[in-house]
Amino acid sequence: MSAKSEILGRIRTALADVPDMTPVDDVPVPWEFGQAVNLPGNGEILDVFVEAVEDYKAVVVRCAASELPQAIAKGLRATGASGVIVPDGLDPAWLVAADDMVFTMEAGELLSPQELNRIDAVVTAAAVGVAETGTIVLDHSPDQGRRALSLVPDRHICVLRADQVVSGVPEAVALLRPAVEAGQPLTWISGGSATSDIELTRVEGVHGPRQLYVILVQEGL
After folding, report:
1. What does each C-alpha distance from 140 to 5, 41, 90, 105, 179 come to in angstroms?
2. Nearest-angstrom CA–CA distance, 60 and 23
3. How far is CA 184 from CA 112, 114, 116, 127, 141, in A?
4. Distance from CA of residue 44 to its chain's centroid?
5. Cβ distance 122 to 150 under 8 Å?
6. Whole-angstrom distance, CA of residue 42 vs CA of residue 1
7. How far apart are CA 51 and CA 131, in angstroms?
8. How many CB atoms neighbour CB 149 within 10 A?
9. Distance in angstroms (rounded) separating the CA atoms of residues 160 and 97
């Protein structure tokens, strides 16, 4: 008997008492494409998302929708922001708790990189969050502004709803398809901007904000 035949024989013996079922029937998983459901073996999807984002040294806070204005104001102060810019499509109600801060509204004007560089922080919404990778995607709809708006300021306060968090990248790509077909750019964010040279010296803020502060809006808190 050859080694191959012996190995296959042992496998058949080991599987003799295993029912002949399809994997789907054998291990059913309550999972719906594109929805915030439990990831098998990894816990609740929002917990997975928060843990992955925090692995990138970003800050994540959870709040109810009614607490969002206060959470934004707290985030701005926690990051040390003083001059803040927001997209002209952002809901003004989000900013009512930070009326003591100076907000520079984009209001349709295209500020130069030099002008944006003088602004401490930006507040935006987001399009999708990816739990497995801890990634946030902007599709630069009106409540997210143009790319330079979220790449040049040193601090990014990013607001994401719980129902925008999906399990993995394929689901995120499917949800982003309309934006791509409309010609909108995408920005994929995994933590604050950082890179290392050949000597492993970490440099932050090279191609985006140094600080990422994520506010996850979740009902039932």
Report:
1. 59, 34, 11, 16, 9
2. 36
3. 20, 24, 21, 12, 8
4. 16
5. yes
6. 44
7. 9
8. 23
9. 18
Query: What CATH number does residue 14 fall under?
Result: 3.40.50.10420
Which ranges of the chain would DSSP assign to H, the alpha helix? 3-14, 23-26, 45-55, 68-78, 113-117, 147-151, 169-181
Token pair in block for residue 159: 């607001």
Give the structural domain span for 130: 3-217
Each residue's pLDDT tens digit, 149-200: 888 889 999 999 999 998 889 889 989 999 999 999 999 998 766 666 666 6
What pLDDT is stored for residue 202 in this prediction? 62
Q: Convert the pLDDT of each residue in 72-130 to its tens digit.
A: 999 999 999 888 888 989 999 998 888 776 566 555 567 787 888 888 899 999 999 99
Asked if 191 and 56 count as a contact pair (C-beta separation under 8 A), the reply is: yes
Place of tokens 């102060």: 77
**Side-by-side strand order, sheet with 155-161:** 59-63, 211-217, 155-161, 121-124, 83-86, 102-105
Looking at the chain, how many residues does it have?
221
* Residue 127: CB atoms within 10 Å: 21
Is the torsion defined by CA of 191, 193, 198, 201 positive or negative?
A: negative
Q: What is the rounded CA–CA span in Å between residue 68 and residue 84?
A: 17
Written as six digits, the tokens of 138 are 């902007």
How many domains does the structure of the chain reveal?
1
